[in-house]
Every structure is written in C-alpha cells, then in structure tokens.
Amino acid sequence: MKINLKNAVAMGLLATVIGVTGCSKESPSTDNSQDGAAQNASAPEAKEKVKVDFWSIWDPSQGNGKLMADAVKKFNDANPDVEVVMSGQGGYDGVAEKLEAALVAKNTPVIAQIEESFLGRYNPIAADLSKYMSQSTIDNYIEGLTRSSFADGVFKAAPMNRSTPILYMNADLVKAAGLDPAGPKTWTELQEYAKKLTDPAKGIYGFSGYWDSDAWYWESAVYSYGGEMVNKDGSQVAFDNEKGSSIVKLFQDMIKDKTMLNAYSAQENQSDLIKQNFLDGKVAMDFDSIGSMGQLINNTKFNVSVAYQPQEGGKNSMVTGGANAIIIDKATEEQKKAAGKFLDFLSQDENVVSFFEQTGYLPTTKSALETPELKKWLQEKPQFKVAIDQLQFAHSRPWSKNWKAIYTSNVEFMKSALIDTSKDPKQVVHDAAVAAQKIIDENK
Amino acid sequence: MCMVNKIIRNPYILIAPAIILVSVFSLYPILFAVRVSFMNWDTVLGTKEYVGFKNYINIFKDPVFWMVLRNTLIFAFFTVVIGIVLAFVIGIFLQKNRLSDNLVQSIIFTPNILSAVSVTVMWMWLMDPNVGILNFVLKWFGLPTLKWMMSPETSLMSIIIVSIWKGLGYNVMIVIAGLQSIPRYIYEAAKLDKAGRWTTLFRITLPLLSPTLFFLLITSIISSFSAFDVVSLMTKGGPENSSNLIVYWIYQIGFLQFNIGKASAGSILFMIMVSIIAVINYAFFNKKVHYQ
Questions:
Q1: Is 3.40.50.800 the CATH number for A165-319+400-442?
Q2: Under an 8 A CB cutoff, do B24 and A266 touch?
Q3: Transmembrane stretches, by residue range (chain B) (predicted)?
Q4: Under an 8 A CB cutoff, do B256 and A443 touch?
C-alpha cells in the first residue's frame, strides 16, 4: 500500500513536470526574435538573407495570390540579401485568427495583410511605417485609401488590394426607361429609378443589393445617410438611430413592392445570385463592389454604366474595403527594413498598374494614375474612373478593436430584417446596437 | 533480471504512457482553461489579469447564452430520441440476413461514410426555399412551403433533420448487431409459449437490447451536445442565433470575438453540464439496463 502510494505520487509528479515543461516552452520562443536580432547584428559579414514572413489572405498558388507570389519572386530576385516568404492564411478571417494565435505563441510574421478595419485591433503591435518605407511612397498613396491607415497621426497600414462599393446600371434599360443615364444621386431617387425599371411581365427587378458577410454595404449606406458606426474612441455604438435604420427600411420597402430582388430569399450566395441576375438582364441596378467590375462589364451583352453610391442629405460618403499591409513591430530592425522595402516595391507604378489591370482592385497610388498605360485603360473602361473619383468621399472605418466581433453580430440582425420584411427596421437596428454595445463593454 | 522484470511489471509504469498522454492532451488543457476562465486575456497586448467570476457572470447575463442553451437541449432531445427510436424500428425490420435487408442497410449507412461537408451542401440544395426539392414535395401535398434554414422558426428543425439523417445508419447498424446477438432459443421458447409479436417485442427484444440502446443513448447524447459541423456549414448559428448550439457559440466567442476568457468560461460550464447529464444517465438508466 505504501509503495503504491509512493508510486502514485511519483506519477503525479511526472505528470506535473510534463505539464510545467509544456508550459515553460513559451519562454524560449519568447526570445526568438531577440535571438534573431543578436545573430543578425553580430554576424553582418556572414551575409545571411533576412527572412521576411509575409502572411497573405491569398493562397500563393492561384488567382490573386499567384499574382502576389510573382511580385514576391520579382522582389526576391532583385534583392539577394532579402527573402520574402509569402504564405496564404485563408482570407481576412484566417489571417486575423492566425495572427491572434501567433501573438499568444509569440511567433508572429513580419508583414500581415489585414482587412482595412482591423487596424483598430492590431494598432498596438503595428510598426510606424514611415520609419521603414520611403516618405515618397507614403505620400504617393491616393488619399482616400489611407483614411483608416493612421493611428494618432502615425502611418501604420499600407494600402494593398482595395475596393469601394458603387452602383452598377444596365445602361440600355435605363435609357429605354427614359431616365437620366447619369444614374440616381440619392437613395430616394434610386427608389424611383427602380420603380420605373421594374417590369414584372419580363421578370425584371429595378434593383438589388445585399449586406455581405461583414455588413459592409450596410455600413457604407449608413455613412451615406450621415451616420456613424462607433464613436471616436470606439467605446460607444453610434448607429442606433434613423441614420442606421433608413437603408434597412428602404430595402424592405423595395422588396415589398417588388422593385428589388431579395437575395436573402435563397441560400448564402447573395453576391453571385445578384450578379447572375444582373448579367441576365433581370436586375437593372446592382449595388456591389468595384471588385465585381471585370466580371460585370466583360460578360454582358448590354452596356454597363456606373454611378457613385447614392446618398441622402447632400453629402457623399462611403466605405472602402480590402486589405492593408502592416509590419509587426516585434520583428527585428533588419526584418522591418526589408519589409518596408518590399512594401515600397509593391507601390511602384509598374506593379500597381499590373495588379489593378489583372485583379480589378483599385490602383493605390497617384503616380500610377498618371502613367500612359493606366490613362489609356481608363479611357477604354471609364467605369473604373468613377470608382477612383469616388474615393475622395471615402469614410474612415470604425476604430474599434472589437469591430470584427461587432460586424459578425450586426450582419445577423440586418439579414433577419430582409428575410422577414415585416420586422420593424428601427427595432432591428436597436437590437443590433444593444448586442454590439455588449461586445464592446465585455471586451474593454 | 528479476529487478528489471519487477519494474516493468509495476502497474504504474505500465499505465504511464496513457497517463502521460492524458495529462498532456486532456488534463493540462482543461486545467489551463479553468485558469483562463477567470482571466481577461487581451491577445493583442498579451496582458492577462484575473477578474474573478466576471466571465461567468457575463455569460449568465447574456441572453444569447440562454437561447443557445435552450437550442442545444432541444437539438439533443430530438436528435437522440428520434434517432434511437427510428433506428430501433428500422433495425427490427432489417434484422433478417436477407439480401434486400443488407442492401437497405448499406444505403442507410452511406451518409455516415460521406464527408459532412458534401452531405450538408446537398441538404442545403434540398432545403433551398426557392428551388429545393423539399418545398416542391410540400407543395405537391398542398402543404405550405417552408424557408428551412433561412428562417428563425425552422432553422433549428432543419439542422436536426440533417443530423438525424446523418447518424441514422450508424445507429441502425448498432441496433441490428444487438438484435442478432440475442439468442434464437429465447424466441423459440417464447413461440412455444404462444407469446404474441408485441409481447415478444416488449418482453424479450427490448430488455435484451437495452445494453445496446443504453450505449447508443450515451454516444448519441455526447455527439449531439458537441455538434458543430452541421451548424458551421449550414447556418452559422443564424438567423439571429436561432440555430446556434453551445459549441459553435463558444467558437464564436473565442475565435470571432477573441474573448478567450469568456470562451473558456463557456467551455467549463459546458463541461459541467455534460458531466451532470452523464451522471444522471448512469443513475437513471443503468438499473434498467438488463445485462445478460
């Protein structure tokens, strides 16, 4: 009995030791970055390549990720002392989730491609880019794209793949209905346009739109009514008012009088559903991202025109979206410098123009707009010009470290108002605001 | 030699590998989660501070938690009860070793070997409010159509249906195995005593099958409480949390809101809940189960 007890105690100790060592594993990796710094500093003559981990939202083997991977390769070839290593982390959410885990494990990348609005959360770990990038690059970014890049006046997020919502119109239908081809300026006008464009006999809806998975279009419309998402320091929800609910009411009204195709009557493919109907000529106006431009103007048998996102109350205001690059401040000085160089490289005219032409994401720099190649492109496809011009009215994104959690909650409420259009929009927005405020209060 | 033998034969040495694995992969994470559940952990700043029971209080004050808890209990009740009753009935019909029985058995078992993703995608098509076959069938019978997982009223029902369907084949297999292990001579004796079909079913089959059914009950309850894939793939807990279950909710708190403390507190509450149900299970049913 005694021996058994002893053994049992020994086993317990063994388990504890394993537990403790498992736990203390954290500490050696803590110093990883410093080790790296010491190594790099003490052995300059060894000429070891500076390795820069770059976490992308895209898989480097295909599509946009392939284009980015090509740019990385070009950069690495031109800079033999640096090696940028790109890895796809599974979209905006994937990068955010893995960054969170990496912060806990103290094993962060050097560059992270994060959704524009996430700087509110990652600001404490993001480096001051003006220290590592050239000032001329930073000044060269189109001003409308950097409104969410500054924290206390410090530039921390470099625009990468960026977008903004615009109104697509079937120009032939607009012309046939005898409407002003410039398109509606206000949401009220949009409603009137939609009424005239709707043709139940042919199965044509005047308009369609949706919220997207982060309620991006709702956010954008709320700005256009003069509303806000959260207050300046992100401590209070600011959309629990008429400005927050007007667009919900408008969409509900239009769905009820059948001038708007309700994308929420079917499965989770609202974007594709609307685009397909637009391409088939069954939806005359589509409120969608600039990202869909290529698909919508190249595949149609009719003329497509675009207009600014409508507003109400006299002032244009809308979101931008997509991703910015941040440099994680914990990286070594060499890594940060190399990363800055890489971001400078991505912003060179040649790279900006080719990325824009191949992806449809907005060109990010002013000088790229002045290149003959881009000028010619914009002459041929003037629809892009509208979206670029619209950037002057870009609204900054919500400054809250909990924004991702808030929009995940918001979108459920906004969706419910379109699935069941008898819901009171004010009540829906109020409920969303209460839930959002709770998230803020619980995660101070 | 004898010494070495003695050491090797020491039971604690023999169970050491298991204990070590359990300690590292189960015990340590559980204890760590208990610790984190009392903390406010800012993952970005890397700051941790003890906040006492604040995370637990926040959960109890959260209406979503109560809704999710209610959903989980409803989900578990229906998937377990319907799943087992259906399996029992089908098992009774398929227990003979005929070719047709085996064929039907295989067909019913198929969903089990398919991946959850493809199965749910298929069901999402069947349940589409506009073009889904299920609504066509309802219309055919002159019944009102449903919005299935698009509506708060029917979303929970939709995932219950898919879960039952997916688990049915496995349950039927187990029931049939149980039925076939009941000795024939008992039935023959019952026949000689002129026992009717129902008497045989309730007096012989059911009691002798009770260990099998008890096993199914326990495993079904556990799997229904930890259901995640169906929710994540079909509804993401929506609309308005109407189909959100506790495990998915914990995931949302932890990995969408990055509130690790609250998510850990939720996990601990979940663990306590499942433990209580397991204890009740054993206390209530163990006596009624007839082991030969």
A1: no
A2: no
A3: 12-34, 73-94, 106-126, 156-179, 200-225, 268-285
A4: no
Task: Quote the pLDDT of residue A265.
Answer: 76
Q: How far is CA B96 from CA A362, B100, B170, in A?
A: 67, 9, 17
Q: Where are the domains of chain B?
A: 2-36, 63-285
Determine, for residues B45 and A124 on separate chains, whether the beta-carbon distance falls below 8 Å. yes
The 10s digit of each residue's pLDDT in A94-148 is 999 999 999 988 899 999 999 999 999 999 999 999 999 999 999 999 999 999 9
Selecting from B16, B46, B259 the residue whose C-beta is nearest the C-beta of A442 gives: B259
Q: Tokens 């809806």 identify what position?
A: A205
* Chain A residues in contact with B152 (beta carbon < 8 A): 416, 420
The confidence score (pLDDT) of residue B200 equals 87
- Verify whether the Cβ–Cβ distance A104 to B46 is below 8 Å: yes
The Cα–Cα gap between A238 and B161 comes to 40
- For residues B122 and B162, the answer to whether their CB atoms sit within 8 Å is no
Which residues in chain A have Cβ-Cβ distances shorter than 8 Å to B240? Answer: 412-413, 416
pLDDT, tens digit (0-9, with 9 covering 90-100), for A324-380:
999 999 999 999 999 999 999 999 999 999 999 888 899 999 999 999 999 999 999
The DSSP H or E segment spanning A82 is strand A82-88
Average model confidence (pLDDT) across chain B? 88
**Per-domain boundaries in chain A:** 49-162+321-383, 165-319+400-442
Which one is predicted more confidently, A29 or A205?
Answer: A205
- The model's confidence at residue A151, banded by pLDDT at 50, 70 and 90, is very high
Superfamily of domain B63-285: MetI-like (1.10.3720.10)
Interface of B with A (CB under 8 A): 10, 12, 16, 19-20, 23-24, 27-28, 31, 43-46, 58, 62, 64, 124-125, 128-131, 147, 150-152, 237-241, 252, 255-259, 262
Q: Is the dihedral of CA B146, B152, B157, B161 positive or negative?
A: positive
Give the CATH number of domain A49-162+321-383; options: 3.40.190.10, 3.60.40.10, 1.20.1250.20, 3.30.300.20: 3.40.190.10
Which ipTM was obtained for this model? 0.78
Rounding to the nearest 10 degrees, give the CA dihedral for residues B119, B120, B126, B132.
-140
Q: What is the pLDDT of residue A267?
A: 67
Phi-psi region of B114 (alpha: psi -120 to 50; beta: other; left: phi over 0): beta
